[in-house]
Write a structure and sequence with these properties.
The chain has 243 residues and is of the alpha+beta class. It has one domain: Cathepsin B, Chain A (Alpha-Beta Complex). The longest helix is centred in the first third of the chain and has 16 residues.
């Protein structure tokens, strides 16, 4: 008799390669022009659409995260935004991955975004935050409109997401790397865009699985805050030139 496969395929894909920390970059708080202020107790996610952007069929999470961030930034400041199509997202992903569905290094994606541009815009700058520094992550979300995260993704995350449950630590097996973007937070966890929705990623989960955090300085943010960013952009950009 033929063997029948009774395993249900996972509805989501992964695609963040192991974290790389460029030696030229210092942590975000080192570039601060003074002590960064205390963030609020919670930050809500801007009301916008956060589609799956091919991440059910392609391991393009590192690229799909970019329109998610741009959706949030434009919504927060009431700016008009036309998102890229799924074909445009897949094309950009395959271009950067050498034509294969291999995943990408987050630091490489950010370098491309800052130097060459992605989906019609360039990042002004970006800086790492220690994954264990929850205060720093909250500051990145509250004052710089979000954080680009890398996690080691366990099987439980997909199951909990499909059930509409918070991501908690269960000890389940890690299936690969995944990129998510923190757009808000509560006392219980980070609120992250991923797989066509928003996941509540608890701090216990972060303690076990968060591998990298990037604070992003967008052109929209600079236009809105001008000289009140609290970051020495010139020094940060000088270090980025050596990445």
């Amino acid at each position: 008799m033929p063997i029948i496969n009774t395993i249900t395929p996972k509805p989501y894909k992964l695609g963040a390669l192991p974290a790389v920390r460029p030696a030229a970059l210092k942590d975000l708080d080192v570039y601060a022009t003074g002590k960064l202020p205390t963030p609020p107790a919670k930050v809500t996610v801007p009301k916008a659409k956060y589609p799956i952007d091919c991440n059910d069929v392609e391991g393009d999470c590192t690229i799909a995260a970019i329109p998610h961030l741009k959706e949030a930034w434009h919504a927060k400041y009431n700016l008009q935004y036309t998102p890229p199509t799924e074909l445009e997202i897949k094309t950009e992903y395959r271009k950067l991955s050498g034509g294969e569905d291999t995943g990408l290094v987050e630091a490489d994606v950010l370098k491309t975004w800052q130097t060459e541009g992605l989906f019609g815009s360039k990042l002004i700058a970006y800086a790492p935050v220690q994954p264990t520094n929850i205060l720093g992550i909250h500051q990145a979300v509250a004052f710089y409109d979000g954080a680009y995260l890398g996690i080691e993704c366990p099987a439980s995350a997909q199951e909990q997401f499909a059930n509409g449950e918070p991501w908690t630590y269960t000890g389940s097996e890690v299936e690969g790397g995944h990129c998510i973007v923190a757009l808000g937070f509560t006392q219980n966890g980070l609120l992250c865009a991923t797989w066509g929705g928003i996941a509540e990623v608890t701090y216990g989960f972060c303690a076990h699985y968060l591998t990298e955090v990037w604070c992003l300085i967008s052109g929209i943010l600079v236009a809105q805050k001008k000289d009140s960013l609290g970051i020495d952009i010139a020094s940060l950009k000088a270090d980025l030139a050596n990445v």
